[in-house]
Amino acid sequence: MNADRRTAVTAGVLFLVTEVAAIAGAVLYRPLLGGGGAADQRAVLGALCELVLVAAVAGTGVTLYPLVRRWGEGAALGYVCARLLEAVAILLGIVAVLSLTTLRRDAADPGAVDAVGAALVAVHDWTFLLGPNIALGVNTALLAGLMYRSRLVPRPIAVLGLVGGPLICASAVAVMSGLYAQLSVPGSVAALPVFAWELALAGRLLLRGFRPEALRWRIDSPPAGDPEPARQPSTITSGSSRGPASAW
């Protein structure tokens, strides 16, 4: 297996892990709102799933950057930064959830638990909005643009990301404006293109890898912005052969 195929498989696995870990974490977090001890245990498991999610999110950026930067180093670096920003937002949400479980287990005043617990839930909801919505939309659009430009994957897959990234960002703005709730039907529908993009991209990378034609172009052509090769010193061929011309 060559380096490009290993990169494709690694990225495909990481994208699948992000989907599985995100869904598992969301399912396990839901009972936390009920306030029982079992719910707290499930929330801890959900936090562990989201730690795996954080590693996978950061891993996709690190894995793909050395390859996609050849078609736009600024956009590739922006993708890595947006991916890391998404991971940081998820980490803040994990801290809020774990703080809530500690509060419910150790606090003696039920009134304090309700007030502070509501604040921690709000922190988690906002990190979810800013991370796996806005930051995810930005990094999806950046990577899809690079994939569209490079043709590393079929363009219909890239178009899914180009549509889904801005759409989930717009949905997040609508939630921030109070038009509808995060987990409402419009919010779920807006997230479907990004979900389809990541699944399609992961499937393509795992089963087929990157398109060979795009990889051959990458090998045969210098990256944008690279300096031209240095010219060799000229030689004097007229008259007697005297080797390289002197500097003066």
From TrEMBL:
<feature type="transmembrane region" description="Helical">
    <location>
        <begin position="126"/>
        <end position="146"/>
    </location>
</feature>
<feature type="region of interest" description="Disordered">
    <location>
        <begin position="220"/>
        <end position="248"/>
    </location>
</feature>
<feature type="transmembrane region" description="Helical">
    <location>
        <begin position="158"/>
        <end position="181"/>
    </location>
</feature>
<keyword id="KW-0472">Membrane</keyword>
<feature type="transmembrane region" description="Helical">
    <location>
        <begin position="187"/>
        <end position="207"/>
    </location>
</feature>
<dbReference type="Pfam" id="PF14329">
    <property type="entry name" value="DUF4386"/>
</dbReference>
<keyword id="KW-0812">Transmembrane</keyword>
<feature type="transmembrane region" description="Helical">
    <location>
        <begin position="44"/>
        <end position="68"/>
    </location>
</feature>
<protein>
    <submittedName>
        <fullName>DUF4386 domain-containing protein</fullName>
    </submittedName>
</protein>
<feature type="transmembrane region" description="Helical">
    <location>
        <begin position="80"/>
        <end position="100"/>
    </location>
</feature>
<keyword id="KW-1133">Transmembrane helix</keyword>
<feature type="transmembrane region" description="Helical">
    <location>
        <begin position="12"/>
        <end position="32"/>
    </location>
</feature>
<dbReference type="InterPro" id="IPR025495">
    <property type="entry name" value="DUF4386"/>
</dbReference>
<feature type="compositionally biased region" description="Polar residues">
    <location>
        <begin position="232"/>
        <end position="248"/>
    </location>
</feature>
